[in-house]
Amino acid sequence: MAVTDATSAPEIRSDAEWRDALTPDQYRVLREHGTERAGTSCLLAEKRSGTFTCAGCGAPLFEQGTKFESGTGWPSFFEPLPDAVETTVDRSHWMVRTEVHCARCKGHLGHVFDDGPAPTGLRYCMNGVAMNFEPAE
């Protein structure tokens, strides 16, 4: 289900509907706050113009122009699209981090850190399996 406006109505599905709609890896990351193994995402090498969207609901998340090579093994961006993501405090794994999730379906995308490049100084470290890529036409 593709959506073009991240501010549209929230995506609400039952757990069974999410399991049917997502691959097991997507479900583990988006719905159970998992993490994919570093270096495994095909989106790491994606350099075409276009938009990275939520694999759960299709909401646009990041433009290609905000992607950068962080050396972490996960697709990294310095800025999301307006109103595309929300953040919460994540206290798992005996540390405090800032979790990033899709503003529309609340799917877990990754974490944001303050060690990114200008102009924002932020590094949105995203799980590639939680996103799709739509090339510009």
UniProtKB/TrEMBL annotation:
Transmembrane domains' residue ranges: none
The keyword Metal-binding appears for this protein: yes
Record family assignment: Belongs to the MsrB Met sulfoxide reductase family.
Enzyme class, spelled out: oxidoreductase
Pfam families: SelR
Organism, scientific name: Methylobacterium gregans
Domain of life: Bacteria
Record field: catalytic activity: L-methionyl-[protein] + [thioredoxin]-disulfide + H2O = L-methionyl-(R)-S-oxide-[protein] + [thioredoxin]-dithiol
Gene Ontology MF terms: metal ion binding; peptide-methionine (R)-S-oxide reductase activity
InterPro entries associated with the record: Met_Sox_Rdtase_MsrB (IPR028427), Met_Sox_Rdtase_MsrB_dom (IPR002579), Mss4-like_sf (IPR011057)
One cellular-component annotation, GO: cytoplasm
Domain MsrB, chain residue ranges per copy: 15-136
One GO process term, biological-process aspect: protein repair
Name under which the protein is recorded: peptide-methionine (R)-S-oxide reductase
Cofactors, names only: Zn(2+)
Keywords: Metal-binding, Oxidoreductase, Zinc
